[in-house]
Every structure is written in structure tokens, then in C-alpha cells.
Design goal:
217 residues; 74% helix
């Protein structure tokens, strides 16, 4: 494991390469060559690779005793996999399935399990996705703040607005914990969460209009 930690960036790049190779091989074998059983092996490789990335981040933290940019990148990868990764993969899977069928001159497959939602159904789905994102955000912050401790500057807060402005302007933020790398992650993640909230909740007030045809992805 020491050799892997000494070359952790190389192994992380290799893991990202394996991530894309496993997805491409899975889709090609499943839809172009129609080797569905063999394609499952690459899907398993995809899952194992994600677990390997998380393991490298965990052992690197145990080895260094601090939260660095290396763990920051790994956390971003894992959070994406837990939030939007599954949905994006389903969309990609449906898109490739239809494209391959079209290229091979086969009938375009119907995908009844992946339908386009509109109105209240779509707004409900968006709120559900945002709730999952928010829950992961809260749990991650509680865990990491408990590890690193709350920022020493919390006692100096007199205005929440001024604190937020300073937090986003600082090159090295000192909030919410005493770890700069985690604070950078928190700042970027908070901005993404805010954008996600605006987009997701906007469908509650401005529902997505349905199409006249009952189509699917």
C-alpha cells in the first residue's frame, strides 16, 4: 500500500481511465455486440473502481493525517456518483441504446421505465434529487467538521452576510472548519448546492410542460 500512496496521483489518473474504459466497454458489449452477460463484468469493474478510489482516499488520509486536495478530488468524485451519477448513467445508457439501434438499422427500442416527466411529477422528482443532495451535503459536513473541528473564527462572526461574502472572497477560507482543503470543498459544494436548489425548486413554481406525444428517453 505504501507504493500506491507514494504514487497516488498516478493511480488516481489510472482509476479515472478505468472508469471511462469500463463504461465504454459496457455499452459497446451490451448494445453493439449484444454480449449482455459479458458486459456485466465491466459494470462490476466500474463499481469496484469507485470503491478503489474511495479506499485510496481513506488510506491516504490515514497516512498523512490531514485532508488535502487529493482527498478533495476523491470526495467530489464520490459525491457525484452518489447524487447525479446514477441518473446521468441511465440517460447515457438510453441514449446509446437508441443510437446503436439506429446505426444498425434495428427498430428503435421503447424504454417505458424511463419516461419524460412533466408538471407535478417532474417537480416532485427534482425535489427528491435535491433532498438527497442536501442530505449528503449535511452528513458530509457533520462528519468532516467533527474530524477537523469547527473554525476558530466562529466567535468573530457578527454578520452572517459579511461572513459569507468574506468566505467566498478569501483565497484560503477559514470557515467552517480548521482545514483549508475541506473549507475549499465546502465553499464550492455550497455554491453548487445553491444552484441546484434554485434549479430544482424552480420547477415547483414553474412546472415543466409536457409534450403532446408520450415519448421516453
Amino acid at each position: 500500500m505504501n507504493f500506491i500512496l507514494e504514487n497516488k496521483w498516478t493511480f488516481l489518473i489510472m482509476a479515472e481511465a478505468i472508469f471511462w474504459i469500463s463504461i465504454i466497454c459496457f455499452l459497446l458489449l451490451r448494445y453493439w455486440f449484444e454480449f449482455k452477460k459479458l458486459s456485466i463484468a465491466f459494470f462490476i469493474l466500474f463499481i469496484v473502481n469507485d470503491l478503489w478510489i474511495a479506499t485510496m482516499g481513506f488510506f491516504d488520509y490515514l497516512n498523512t493525517g490531514k485532508f488535502s486536495n487529493y482527498q478533495l478530488i476523491i470526495v467530489i468524485i464520490i459525491v457525484y456518483a452518489l447524487t447525479y451519477g446514477k441518473t446521468d448513467f441511465r440517460k447515457l445508457d438510453a441514449f446509446i441504446q437508441k443510437k446503436v439501434a439506429k446505426w444498425k438499422g434495428n427498430p428503435i427500442p421503447e424504454l417505458p421505465n424511463v419516461k419524460k416527466l412533466s408538471g407535478k411529477e417532474h417537480a416532485k422528482m427534482e425535489r427528491k434529487h435535491f433532498s438527497i443532495h442536501l442530505l449528503i451535503y449535511i452528513v458530509a459536513h457533520v462528519v468532516l467538521v467533527s474530524i477537523f473541528g469547527l473554525s476558530d473564527q466562529l466567535t468573530d462572526i457578527h454578520s452572517i452576510w459579511n461572513t459569507l461574502v468574506t468566505w467566498f472572497e478569501e483565497k484560503q477560507p477559514h470557515f467552517p472548519s480548521n482545514n483549508i482543503a475541506f473549507n475549499n470543498l465546502s465553499r464550492v459544494w455550497s455554491l453548487i448546492l445553491a444552484i441546484d436548489a434554485v434549479i430544482s425548486l424552480s420547477y415547483t413554481f414553474f412546472p415543466k410542460k409536457g409534450t403532446s406525444k408520450n415519448t421516453s428517453y
